[in-house]
Structures are given as C-alpha cells and as structure tokens.
C-alpha cells in the first residue's frame, strides 16, 4: 500500500488486514506509518519510501516478497496537491508534482510486474481524482497528473490482461483527509466566494466523503470480487460528476 499512511491509504490497509491480507505500508510519513503498523500487528510492516524513487520501489517489493512470499495487490494511494495559478507555479514545482502523482504510479506498476507476471495474477489500483474530469481552482497540474493516471491505468489494464493482471483507477471526490483540509484551507484563503462550511451542500449526497467509503471501492477492485474489471476508472464522488442538487 503506497501512501499507506494517508487517510485513504490507511483505510484500505485496515480493511485489507481485517479481510486477512498481509500488507506492506510504504509512505514518506514514518510516524503515521509506524503507528498504523503498531495498531494492526504482525500482518503489516512499514517501509519508509518515496514513491517517486525507483530504488525505494525495489526495496518495497523485496520487503513484500521476503516477508510475505508474493505480491498479489498494489494500491498507489499517495499524492500531493499544491495549488497555484499557471503563472505562479515554477517549473521545479510542476515537475515535482508530476514526479509524485504521475511518474511514481508508473514506477509502482513497473516494480510489481516481475512477481505478478510470474504468478500470472495481480490487481493494481491507482488513486486518481474527480479532478481528472472536472477543473478545480488552481489545481491544473494536479488535474493533469490525475488524468494521466486514468489514462495509464487504462493502458496498463489493456497490456497486462494477458498476464492475468488487472489495473484500475479510482477517482474520489472531496474526501476527509489532510490533503483535502490543506486544499480547502487554501481555497478559503484565496477565494472570498468559497464557503467552506457549506461547500458540499449542493453535492447530490450533500456531504464530504469518508476515507473508508473510498477504501471500499479500492479494496473491491483489488479483490477477486472484481475479477472482470480492468482498464477502467471508477468515481467515488458522492455523485458530483453526475450533477449538482437542483
Ligand atoms: N482527499 C480528497 O479529497 C481526495 C480527492 C481526490 C483524490 N484524492 C487522492 O487520494 C490519494 C490519497 O490522498 P488522501 O486524501 O488520503 O491524503 P493524505 O494526505 O491523507 O494522504 C496522502 C499520503 O501520501 C503520502 N505521500 C505523499 N507524497 C509521497 C511520496 N512521494 N511517496 C510516498 N508517499 C507519499 C503522504 O505522506 C500521505 O500519507 C491521493 O492520490 C489524492 O490525490 C484525494
């Protein structure tokens, strides 16, 4: 579980462990990752990893193989969402965002291919965003990276089906997490019209999503229950892309 210390990642880890899976939690956030592993016991191990580092992916996969013998699933659930206008985002900031949100997904898929191809089975879920389909203020680079994750998941699903490996993306809408709080806090600071208290009032379901609700979809796709699902992306957005309340 890459990004396993975050809200959506940790919710998947808890659910997977409850269902009997053994999980490697990989994340930059050592404190949160170690505390999650301490909570969940021996079915879970933490590895400090920067998902944009190919060497770190090698370490994550070799830990999974040495500790648990195989790699059945990969969830890419990390991400960053710095806000900026086109004019203000530097080349370096743009490239870092692409390295984490987009290139790291490629590196993760590549890293698990050897064991999954040998097993002739595997399931990969990449966490994209509703922003892949709908503009969000000052998040153009984030949106571009998330659209790339949808496209990469589709192409990987097509290429890897021959090996019994399924690849899908999920696209959450606003979901309670540190990343979401940072985004809405910045919007409240920079956009006088943004009403944080009532931001979800006109969503069809009228509320923010909980990380467990996103995790349910991710774990479904990771599991054999989704055995005929590949190359697709699945919205978990409270209906926002469908429309707003009348
Ligand atoms: N929360 C939302 O509203 C929302 C909406 C749509 C999509 N998403 C996506 O969901 C995913 C999970 O985000 P979240 O909402 O749980 O936020 P979060 O901040 O709780 O978790 C993000 C995690 O990613 C980790 N991370 C960041 N950069 C990393 C790197 N280079 N290597 C390894 N780990 C790294 C962080 O340490 C953190 O644990 C992200 O891809 C995000 O873009 C979130």
From TrEMBL:
Cleavable signal peptide: none
InterPro entries reported in the protein's UniProt record: NAD(P)-bd_dom_sf (IPR036291), Sc_DH/Rdtase_CS (IPR020904), SDR_fam (IPR002347)
A Pfam entry, by short name: adh_short_C2
Keyword list, A-Z: Oxidoreductase
UniProt superkingdom: Bacteria
Keyword Oxidoreductase: yes
Family: Belongs to the short-chain dehydrogenases/reductases (SDR) family.
Protein name: SDR family oxidoreductase
Species assigned in the record: Dactylosporangium fulvum
């Amino acid at each position: 579980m890459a990004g396993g210390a975050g809200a959506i990642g940790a919710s998947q880890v808890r659910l997977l462990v409850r269902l009997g899976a053994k999980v490697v939690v990989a994340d930059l956030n050592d404190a949160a990752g170690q505390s999650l592993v301490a909570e969940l016991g021996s079915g879970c191990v933490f590895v400090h990893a920067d998902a944009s580092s190919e060497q770190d992916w090698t370490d994550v996969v070799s830990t999974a193989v040495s500790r648990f013998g195989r790699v059945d699933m990969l969830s890419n659930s990390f991400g960053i969402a710095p806000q900026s206008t086109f004019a203000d985002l530097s080349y370096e900031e743009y490239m870092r965002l692409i390295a984490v949100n987009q290139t790291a997904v490629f590196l993760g898929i590549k890293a698990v291919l050897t064991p999954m191809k040998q097993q002739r089975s595997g399931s990969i879920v990449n966490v994209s965003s509703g922003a892949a389909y709908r503009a969000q203020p000052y998040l153009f680079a984030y949106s571009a990276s998330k659209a790339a994750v949808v496209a990469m998941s589709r192409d990987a699903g097509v290429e890897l089906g021959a090996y019994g490996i399924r690849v899908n993306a999920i696209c959450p809408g606003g979901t309670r997490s540190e990343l979401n709080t940072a985004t809405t806090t910045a919007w409240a600071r920079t956009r006088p019209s943004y009403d944080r208290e009532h931001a979800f009032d006109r969503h069809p379901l009228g509320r923010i999503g909980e990380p467990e609700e996103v995790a349910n979809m991710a774990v479904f796709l990771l599991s054999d229950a989704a055995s005929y699902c590949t190359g697709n992306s699945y919205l978990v957005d409270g209906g926002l892309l469908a429309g707003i309340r009348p």
